[in-house]
Amino acid sequence: MLVALLILVATSLPASPAEDPRPDSLEFFEKQVRPLLVKQCFSCHGEAQQFSSLRVDSREALLKGGKRGPAIIPGDATLSLLAKAVRHEGLKMPMGSKLAPEEIADIEKWINSGAPWPSGSAASSVAAPNFYEKIKKEHWAFQPINRLLLDKAELQGGGTRPCCDLPLTPSLEKEGGPANAIHSVDYFVRTALSNAGLKPAAPADRQTLIRRLSLVLTGLPPTPLEVDLFVRDASPEAYPRLVDRLLASPHFGERWARHWMDVMRFAETFGNDWNYEIKGAWLYRDYLIRAFNQDVPYDQLIREHLAGDLLQKPRINAKEGINESVLGTSFLRLGELGHDDCIRFRQIRTDVVDNQIDTLGKAFQGLTVACARCHDHKLDPIPTSDYYALYGALTSSRMVMRNADTPDVNAAAKQRLRELKPLIRSELAKQWIQETGLIPRYLMAAHRAWKGLPPKEQDLTELSLDRIQAWLALLEKQKPGMEEPLYPWIQLAGSELAQEWRKLQSRYAEETRSRVAYNREKFRPFGDLARDGFGGWYADGNASLDGPSPSGEFAVANSGPAAVTGVFPAGIYTHALSERLDAALRSPLVPKDKKFLSLQVVGGRMGAWRTILDNCMLSEDYQLLDSDSPRWLKIPNRDDQPALPFYVELVTKGSNPRIPDRPDRLKVTQAQLDSPYSYFGVARAYLHDVDESPRDELSHLAPLFAGASPASLEGVAERYASIIRRSLERWAAGKSTDDDARWIGWLLENRLVTNASSQSPRLQELIEDYRLAESRIAAPKTFNGTADLETGYDFPVLPAGDAEHPGKTVPRGFLQLIAGTQEGVKAFGSGRLEIANLIASPSNPLTARVMVNRIWLHVFGRGIVPTADNFGVYGERPSHPELLDALAAQFIRDGWSIKKQIRFLLMSQTFQQSSQASPEALASDPQNRLLSHYPVRRLEGESIRDTILAVSGRLDRTMYGPSIQPYREEPKDYRKLHQGPLDGNGRRSIYIKVTRHEGSRFLDTFDFPSPTVARGNRDTTNVPAQALALLNDPFVLDQAAFWADRLIKAQAPTVEARLDSMFRAALGRLPDDAERARFAGLAKELANLHKATPEKTLESREVWKDMAHAIFNLKEFIYVR
């Protein structure tokens, strides 16, 4: 019954006509189908030869066919010979291997869509001579912006007579101009209307105007109070004030950031089978919100997106401690990414860069640059060499995890930790030095136990049995090596001491010389990690800003009874201050002339080492570290791929893109993932061919054999104690050597000294203070970004996109159409900054046009150029080309200010006019391209959901932060598809996590774009599933109930009064008499249905839940009028 009632009360609004799909279809052909024809078919069915009299290099040739008849029947792949042949139904083409299933599906999809083919283009790989020059000279988008049109518009619009003999209203007045001046936008629009014999619609009423304005600028409806204030304010400044207030709203940034996120194919998972997290993607989303709210100039945004990590003066957010500029580079990392071996499957890597080029080209230039991947672009002047010039620039940058924290983040906490560490060291050293006096007794007691001799009575009462057991365990160690500190003791025991001592003394001296010589011959240092500058390695993160640590560095335990976790040789240790600090340490490119790389490392709590070949960022080639004592790690070199760059990185958990990993690869608990702790350290790095790591050079034991032989084992024990005592004394003075650190680390690792935070009141106080300061360290802001760490390298053209057969190498650079040359970039690194400057140049004919068109699209619902991502030859032409150039020129003149451009459009009568179309307009301009009236359009799914939350009263306006999982009836945790709350905790839709698998069902129903490619134009469908979602989706029902509870709590005196409040909240207006009567009747019927008496109708939750649900289902509720 309720469904019938909802249908009864729903009011209809016209939907926008569907856009011509031709440009998208042609792009699909260029990217997916034409490369197959070139690679698989052209050699036998091209210009040179035609087996079976068939050519496949034009649509006409395919329609004509060969000896067997037409090769394609547009619209029917089932009957098309080409599709049958690639399916191996009878004919089996191409010769050799059958096409992959996805390639066959692409051909079938193309045929079923009508086999679109750009007119006048054949499937060759090289464009015809002079073709590009002709296009450059003739195509409108490649011509310089006509800045004189801005002067013309201002002259005509700022004159003393109105355009086209049309009346003006106060809201039409150009600010600062004469009272009868016409707005520049209206000048161009009205000129076109006049030429078409049409007139503009009357101004919209104020209730409609404020709702339109609020939804366009913030994506949220105005409150009843806001509507009342605007309607009652009769001053000429009421509308400009409203515009300025909404532009200043923090929700403006949320709304307009989401528009840009469509273009950036924003997602928070990489997709494919395991759907890995794009860690820190939400930081990029928040960066966009802040940037739009702060009106960061668009040319600055371009530079930040392409080269934010390379700017000499990055934009710093001092309040939040964020390097904003570096976050912009996240856009390069948001694409879909496979997690298989991208060396065995080379297309994984080339597809990533192709997606980056495709997004860059569409977003900033409105060009389908990626169509030149396999062959010269068939319609736009983009040769394949330009594609690979861009490819070289992008692939020259490392795709890495970055940290957006500024150096002063956690500065106070870190300074306090630095102040406390020497005090802790001094207190520990004092106590441990005292304990060295007992080392001889402990060693002798352990020796007696080892030899099966009875213990001394005094030892049993005065020594710790646990400590004796710890020493005994070392003596009982099976086959200890010469590097073990107690190896000499074991050899001396039971032998004639002086004689065995001399033998050992000689043996150690000779072995040391031999090992030093061996290491010098067989191992080549790969960076000095104990010196300032990280030895040529590259550090990122807030744990690495202080540089390498000296010998004797130690880590304070962050919890539990232990005081410290280790003492280390000179090197780089992310936990030198705290395991809460994040870091990554990346090697230079590893030379391929050696078989192995060995690193001396420590690490734990999911700290890891990774090997990265050819920027394969989701490579499975990584292992977790799990040792607080230095251990050698031997990594095989990738000399099997001599042409591909290879490096090694050490990362904490937050900087490892593979964590959280898939369950069969790494089994961890949620508590481990949520823990703020992770660390690694590295002391030395060597390249070598021998199948072993560097040999221990035994220098730490040299002091043992200095001087004459002790007279007894007790004397040997005293010598051990003396060595350890001197090591501790130097450590206390801050003058440790690596050997001193080794001795102290050995004591700690084997529990030979007291390591308890409570072993003295002073130490306990210091450790508590340290842990308190450590707890104040904020979580690191890590994200997927880029880094230029070495000289860039140029890339070869891949004919037909085939990575296995590269062609001629081209220099890194940008489109010759813009750069004017293919000399390439001359700077160190990738050249991304040079490319960014070319795009952001005022002389670039595309950049400003493309962006003002995007702004126009979101203000008016349709771009001046309807194909917002394609300004090329097979994109649509502008409806108002002169207006587009005038706006582009003004955009540049106004410092690339997005807010100024939006405000300028909003001040036009074209925006403020009614959405009511005249009969003449419907007849001669049914798509309203000339804008005789404001275009009616359906809200995006996010605004529908946010409006429901706002009207129900559930909306939580909290901004920023990690995303909320979308609601799912059945989570699939193994694919990172976790279950979120039904109402998303009331947060706006921009904060709902975007996953490449199974996103928000409600948003998807309302045409949420697939986050795989740039989408400046969203689809706007009108399908039964949308009506069903508003009728049956549990979110809608839940919010209807929430609104009902608020309505009942508000205690309206009558049904009619409550209806008035509901209409004002949902639609920004009162119901008319007919609506009021119809809804009052509906309330009465629902009261009968739910058995609510007239006296109890206003208190019935069921009645008002259904009434709220009915309001949500009004067409007007989800449309901008």
List key phrases describing it.
1121 residues; alpha+beta; 5-stranded antiparallel sheet; 41 helices; 20 strands
Strand content: 5-15%
What is Rg? 36 Å
Please identify the structural class as seen in this structure: alpha+beta
User: Could you list the spans in which at least 5 consecutive residues all have pLDDT below 50?
Assistant: 1-21, 158-177
Q: What oligomeric arrangement do these chains adopt?
A: single chain
Q: Summarize the amount of helix as a percent range.
A: 40-55%
From the N-terminal CA to the C-terminal CA, the straight-line distance is 30 Å
What is the total tally of β strands?
Answer: 20
Mean pLDDT: 90
Number of helices: 41
Characterize the biggest β-sheet.
Answer: 5 strands, antiparallel
Query: What would you call the shape?
Result: globular
Lay out the secondary structure.
Layout (H helix, E strand, L loop, with lengths): L1 H8 L12 H20 L17 H6 L16 H6 L14 H12 L18 H8 L9 H10 L26 H12 L10 H13 L5 H9 L5 H10 L2 H14 L17 H13 L4 H10 L8 E2 L4 E2 H4 L18 H20 L18 H12 L2 E6 L7 H25 L3 H12 L6 H6 L2 H11 L11 H6 L4 H26 E3 L12 E3 L12 E4 L7 E5 L3 E2 L10 E3 L9 E9 L3 E6 L8 E3 L2 E10 L9 E6 L18 H5 L4 E10 L24 H20 L5 H12 L11 H15 L6 E6 L7 E2 L12 E2 L5 H4 L12 H8 L7 H14 L20 H13 L4 H9 L2 H4 L6 H6 L12 E2 L2 H12 L48 H5 L18 H9 L1 H17 L4 H13 L5 H17 L11 H12 L6 E2 L1
Antiparallel strand pairs: 1-2, 3-16, 4-15, 5-9, 6-7, 8-15, 9-14, 10-13, 10-15, 11-12, 11-14, 17-18, 19-20
Helix pairs in contact: 2-5, 7-8, 7-31, 9-10, 9-11, 12-13, 14-29, 16-17, 18-25, 18-27, 19-21, 19-25, 25-26, 30-31, 30-32, 35-38, 38-41, 39-40, 40-41
